[in-house]
Design a protein that fits this description.
alpha+beta; single chain; four-stranded antiparallel sheet; 495 residues; globular; disordered C terminus; four-stranded mixed sheet; paralog of FGE (formylglycine-generating enzyme)
Length: 495
């Protein structure tokens, strides 16, 4: 008993001295951030930064599924309540000038692999039709400066994911440059280019200006993941995230002090029409870029209704209550999910998957060499491999690594997809959301969904990126970002 009392008294004494001598561990009493005590670091972390063009989307619960009448009678989006974690989403669709910057970088860096840039090019031939004169768009839409700020189209799902990976690395490289850790290095070639994961794993040093102080050795060290400096990956949003962000029910709260939603929305804006509401200066104007009727893409001369015969500028029209532009119309958008008519919202065994529902998981691990070290490929990227069957069987939370085709004929209760025989749906089918300039108003409903193979582009499909939110889910905790602007607190846009 006496020993216990003495130890408790000693620990209290250590704690009382922590303010003078630096913060101490609550479990051991050892000092943080002190070389004499081993140099273990604990950060005064201010929260996740907001990357370029991203808007904070505070998560929550909502009813996922079609909000319009099911005109095509597809029954592929039955309603159910789910919760989406907080995340970030691009304010706009990725534009032509954004994507041209990507192609330029690929050509400049991968000089030994010119095929990489060629394979990343959008398919400009998507504009061609047998009985339409769209040849000017084939030649000009992607490359001419008149369309710089228009959403890129003709990019397939795989290309969109590659762009997200590239953007992650360029943003993180710029963070390290602005932090004074790295010098700008436009001379990077082939495998010796900045890749976030290669850098964090010690496979890329870069043109170092000044590394961080190493409290263990007293020297310098590269930035680590634990420093919280580098951002998570840019990626395609899941279908649930995209639909939640499009509805923006944040703007339908009855008051700021409760969580009651006044009513659901049919579109990303208020009301049951596609026009601005009465008693506003914009009364009667079309609220999105879509096809109003047969042969009517933009109205009549002198009074163009949506002013878009094809996609319009990425910041056209009024943004929704999260501050996102064109979540209905302009171009449809790729999301991460694999398409199934019976979605993750309807299968019996998946009813419990009501937090961040998603179909498309392929679990991977680092591909280590015989010595246990991380490997890098010829393009400078860290190698991963699919989890082996015996590795998955050893786990309790999943039994196989690839669950894209979960319950597709696994038992008598599952649906069976026999591509080319009974259906055109396969594991390559990806969900497309949002409606486009060539669609009727029905497809502007956030719950509406269609599919396209992941290796095919379309003149009506573009994409925008998302990013996971780490830590606190309340966006009121946002402290700002690495790029000199404060995070947005989006107010109601539609009255």
């Amino acid at each position: 008993m006496n020993r216990t009392i003495l130890f408790s008294a000693a620990f209290i004494l250590l704690a009382s001295c922590s303010k003078k001598g630096g913060e101490r561990s609550s479990s051991t009493g050892w000092k943080y951030n002190d070389q004499k005590w081993g140099g273990f670091e604990k950060l005064d972390y201010e929260g996740q930064a907001t990357g370029p063009n991203l808007v904070p989307i505070e998560g929550g619960t909502f009813v996922m599924g079609l909000t319009e009448e099911d005109v095509p009678f597809q029954w592929n989006n039955e309603s159910r309540r789910v919760t989406v974690s907080s995340f970030y989403m691009d304010e706009t669709e990725v534009t032509n000038v954004d994507y041209r910057e990507y192609i330029y970088w690929l050509n400049r860096v991968y000089t030994s692999y010119p095929k990489i840039a060629r394979n990343a090019l959008p398919d400009s031939l998507v504009w061609r039709e047998e009985l339409s004169f769209n040849e000017p768009f084939v030649e000009s839409y992607f490359r001419h400066p008149s369309y710089d700020d228009y959403p890129v189209v003709g990019v397939n799902w795989k290309q969109a994911n590659d762009y997200c990976d590239w953007r992650t690395d360029r943003v993180n490289e710029m963070i390290l440059i602005e932090k004074g850790v790295l010098n700008p290095n436009p001379e990077q070639k082939d495998a010796e280019n900045f890749n976030s994961k290669s850098y964090l794993s010690g496979q890329y040093a870069g043109n170092v200006r000044k590394n961080l102080k190493d409290l263990q050795s007293g020297g310098e060290r590269a930035v680590r993941y634990e420093d919280g400096i580098l951002l998570p990956a840019y990626r395609l949003p899941t279908e649930a995230e995209w639909e939640y962000a499009a509805l923006a029910l944040y703007g339908k709260q009855i008051t700021k002090n409760d969580e009651l939603i006044a009513e659901r929305r049919i579109y990303p804006w208020d009301g049951n029409t596609v026009r601005y509401k009465k008693r506003t200066k914009d009364q009667g104007k079309i609220m999105a870029n879509f096809k109003r009727g047969r042969g009517d893409y933009m109205g009549t001369a002198g009074k163009l209704n949506d002013q878009g015969n094809i996609p319009t500028g990425a910041r056209s029209y009024v943004p929704n209550d999260f501050g996102l532009y064109n979540m209905g119309g302009n171009v449809s958008e790729w999301v991460a999910d694999v398409y199934r008519p019976l979605t993750a919202t309807t299968l019996r065994d998946e009813e419990d998957q009501d937090l961040n529902p998603f179909r498309g998981n392929e679990f991977r691990v680092l591909d280590l060499d015989s010595t246990g070290l991380v490997q890098k490929d010829s393009l400078g990227r860290i190698k991963y491999r699919n989890i082996k069957l015996d590795e998955a069987l050893d786990r309790e939370n999943y039994t196989k690594a690839n669950v894209i085709d979960y319950r597709d004929g696994d038992d008598t209760a599952g649906a069976f997809y026999d591509y080319g025989v009974h259906t055109l749906i396969s594991n390559k089918s990806r969900v497309v959301k949002g409606g486009s300039w060539a669609d009727r108003a029905f497809w502007l409903s956030p719950g509406a969904r269609r599919a396209k193979d992941e290796d095919k582009g379309d003149r009506t499909i573009g994409f925008r990126c998302a990013m996971s939110r780490l830590g606190a889910q309340s966006m009121n905790d946002q402290k700002g970002n690495e790029f000199g602007t404060k995070a947005k607190t989006v107010k109601r846009r539609y009255k």
